[in-house]
Amino acid sequence: MVRLIRQLHRPDWEPARVCLEHPAPRDLSVHQRFFGPNVEFNYDFNCIVCTKADLDARNPYADPAMARYVQQLIDAAAMSQQATMLDDVRRMVLLLLPSGRCSIEQVAEHLGIGCRTVQRRLAEEGKPFSSIVNDIRTELAARHVIETNRPLTEVATLLGFSAPSGFSRWYHAQFGCSPKESRAARGPSNPRRTLPCP
Predict the structure, then answer these.
(1) pLDDT higher at 55 or 83
(2) Distance from the CA of 3 to the CA of which of 64, 108, 116, 138 falls in 20 to 30 A?
């Protein structure tokens, strides 16, 4: 990376600071000769620190036509990513719900995107994260309680509830009756009743 910056900026460029994860060697001469005097070891991550002036320096190899083309590609990728964000979040929620750890932070981490970015894009689509989780829980609850004979404790776990009582309270708030009442209303003669409550 330092070589690349020197090619684009100037051959004698030195970073303001270089931080390396590994311990310091006994002889620092090679590191200091290559990076300059400001090298730190045992850091949490590897990084190169540049000054603002270095980042603002004009690239002598810049091609305005290529820059416009690259900007078009970036814009198209951003539009595509924005269009699929809701789908990506829904998929992650479905995967993470049974673990009981389905926060927006967890979803963002699994998607490799910042939490604020996920929040902003969902807000642009008018779909807050809590609403997505609730919609998916509602779909799954109706399917598992009404259309299957899975034990209700197992259904509660699949929907991300740590205790069946929490699931029952949520279910009653959504459908106006308990999961047991839904099952009873379904009856043996109508095992695929589509409405959760009578």
Answers:
(1) 55
(2) 64
